[in-house]
Amino acid sequence: MSAVLKPLIELRPMIEADLAAVIAIENAIYAFPWTLGNFRDSLAAGYQCWVYVGECGLVGYAVMMYVVDEAHLLNISIASSRQRQGHGSALLRSVCELAREHGARLLFLEVRPSNTGARRLYARHGFKHIGLRREYYPAPTGREDALVLGLPL
Question: Which of 122, 135, 136, 137 is catalytic?
Answer without folding.
Answer: 122
